[in-house]
Amino acid sequence: MDEQAREVIGTSDGIVAEDGSRYAFADHNCFACGRENPIGMGLHIQLGEGTARTEWTAGPDFVGWSDKVHGGIIATLLDEVMAWAPSSFDSWAVTAEMRVRFRSPAMPGERLIATGKVVERRRRIFEVSGEVRGADGRLVAEGGGRYLGASPSEKADLKERYGAAPGTAGE
């Protein structure tokens, strides 16, 4: 999964369309990837063909029990890359169903690598798998889910809302 995600076609800051047009997103307040959220994660997602990848280091504000990164934060990291994975299909997807299995704890200050990959597509429904690994390569969490792509009219509204207008995509 990680190898395919390295073939970057865009980021959460901007996407290169099939015709070569570049689309930049206006900043927003998303807890996971928004730059305007002062208490958010500030994720920068790299997009490939049906894939998404990010690296992130949890600070001390994201801990849960026993000084480990909170499981809900790990699930959010996983959900974000899985939701972004359908982007190469010009799809704005939201979580319909998600499963997470935690394999090992993550510690604050540890660099985490999260990847998501579309494994099946049926119309607007995307089956996506994902994983979070520590910098040492160990599996922290894995999961999958169903993500629902926006309808054509919803997609047009979202593009207008988030300012996905031709511009310079962030690489």
Structural write-up:
With 171 residues, the chain is α+β, with helices and mostly antiparallel strands. The chain has one domain: Hotdog Thioesterase (Thiol Ester Dehydrase, Chain A), CATH 3.10.129. The chain contains 3 helices and 10 strands. It has a 10-stranded antiparallel sheet with strand order 6-9-8-7-5-4-1-2-3-10. Strand 4 (46-48) and strand 5 form a beta hairpin. It is globular. Mean pLDDT is 82; it is low at 1-5 and 166-171.
Compute the number of helices.
Answer: 3
Determine the mean pLDDT: 82
Terminal Cα span: 20 Å
Name the CATH architecture: Roll
The tally of domains stands at 1
Strand content: 35-45%
- Please, what is the CATH homologous superfamily? Hotdog Thioesterase
Structure classification: alpha+beta
Q: What shape does the CA trace take?
A: globular
The total count of strands amounts to 10
CATH topology label:
Thiol Ester Dehydrase, Chain A
The level 1 CATH classification is: Alpha Beta
Topology as a string of helices (H) and strands (E): HEEEEEHEEEEHE
Report the helical percentage: 10-25%
> What Rg do the Cα atoms give?
15 Å
Q: How would you write the strand order of the largest sheet?
A: 6-9-8-7-5-4-1-2-3-10
